[in-house]
Structure formats: structure tokens, C-alpha cells
Amino acid sequence: MFVVAHGFTGAVDRPHVRRVARALTRYGAVVTFSFRGHGASGGRSTVGDREVLDLAAAVRWARELGHARVGTVGFSMGGSVALRHAALYEEATDAVVSVSAPARWYYRGTAPMRRLHWLVTRPEGRVVSRYGFRTRIHHRDWDPVPLSPVEAVPKIAPTPLLIVHGDADGYFPVDHPRMLAAAAADQGELWLEPGMGHAEHAASDELLGRIGEWVVGRAG
Questions:
Q1: 88-92, 153-157, 191-195: range with lowest mean pLDDT
Q2: What is the rounded average pLDDT for all residues in the chain?
Q3: What is the spatial distance between Cα 188 and Cα 190, in angstroms, rounded to a whole number?
Q4: Are 194 and 167 in contact (CB under 8 A)?
Q5: Residues of the chain above pLDDT 70, percent
Q6: What CA–CA distance (Å, rounded) separates 95 from 11?
Q7: CA-wise closest residue to 28 among 4, 52, 54, 60
Q8: Nearest-angstrom CA–CA distance, 153 and 165
Q9: How far from chain centre, in Å, is Cα 55?
Q10: Looking at the DSSP assignment, which residues form a beta bridge with residue 96?
């Protein structure tokens, strides 16, 4: 069973999220959902903080459906959420895949991330996000600041961990996945994909197939 955690401004009905789900159905059952504040889901996005509760609920539901083995596959924001979920909920998942995730919070080193920070932190940006991207963002700052992805990674072991990142990612350069891999040490695996951009849009069917095979091989 795969539980797919989409990226920021994604949603269960977005074509790129549906494509990911279809590709993974070749390897097992798939649960998809929309994070809070995204698409038709209620509430407001906290951009990776309380979304860990949403993923936990989806994983619990997958278990209640009778699936004994569950792997989480997260993209960008969803990738950071998958890392924190695995660190905070002991034995919640049997394998974790994080694709295009940041290693640290508040990164503004690329133009796309500076635009994203404008969407999140400015009232006019949140209006654009609501009506342009169907994503409603909470106006409050994080308090407390959640565990960062790189801090979460060492707490995931012994659950198998796969970190996937494109070397042409326009949001987070390759020092992010390398930081995550270093934090995982020999408990994680890094795939640095040549020519790949960011998150679901950039994940080829071939890559999704390899991810599906990896999860099946590790989670059983």
C-alpha cells in the first residue's frame, strides 16, 4: 500500500498527483488525499507543519482498510511531511520515500522559493494562492517551529528511507538532498536524478516505477 503526500498547491484531483497515483497502482493499492487548505479539503495550510497530522490520519486509514504494509511517498512539502511523520510516529510506516524535499526551513536561495515565501507571508500573496492555486494558507507563523527535515531523518531508522532529488531542481539545489542523506548515514539511500526538475511534475513514469519497486522491496 502506498500513501501519496502531494506538494504545496497540489491536491488529490490535480492531474500530476493523479498521474503519480496511477503509476504506483502497478505495484500496490494507493491512498491519495489533499492536505488541509488544498483543493476541496477544509482548513488552512500550515505549509508543512500540522500537515503531519493529515498524513498520520491517511496512514491510519490505510491500516484500517486492512493493509499490513504501508509506504509513504511524499513530494516537496509532502516529502518533508513524510520525513517528519516517520520520525514522530514510531512504526507508523514500513518504508519512506521523500522526493524533492528541503533539508531545512526558511530557505530563500532560489527565485521560486522567494516567490513561495511571498505567497505564504504576505496578505496579497495569500489572496493569490487562494484564488490562483486553490490553496488557503494560514496567516499565523509557526509557533513552535516544527522539527526540520534534516533533524527528523536520524529519528526514522530503522525504517527504510529513500531520498530522491533532481540535479536540475529549481527550488532546492542538491545540497538539500545531500544534507538529508548525510543525516541518514547508512540508514538511507539517495537517488540524485540527472536532468530532473522539481517534485511530481518532474517525476517520470520510469522513476515512479523504480520508486514503486523500491517500496515493495523494502516494505514487503
A1: 88-92
A2: 96
A3: 7
A4: yes
A5: 100
A6: 23
A7: 4
A8: 15
A9: 10
A10: 72, 161
Which residues make Cβ contacts (< 8 Å) with residue 87, sequence separation at least 6? 147, 152, 153, 155, 156
For 96, residues 6+ apart whose C-beta sits below 8 A from its C-beta are 71, 72, 74, 82, 83, 86, 156, 159, 160, 161, 162
Burial 205-215 (b: 16+ CB within 10 A, else e): eebbeebbebb
| pLDDT tens-digit series, residues 17-50 | 999 999 999 999 999 999 999 999 999 999 999 9
- Buried b or exposed e, range 29-65, using 16+ CB within 10 angstroms: ebbbbbbbbbbebeebbbbbbbbbebbbebbeebbee
CA angle at 71 for the pair 193 and 142, rounded to the nearest 5° = 80
Residue 175 has pLDDT above 80, yes or no: yes
Joined grid coordinates for residue 88: 514522530
Residues 214, 219: Cα–Cα separation, whole Å: 8
| Residue bearing cell 509513504 | 72
- Does position 92 have pLDDT exceeding 90, yes or no? no
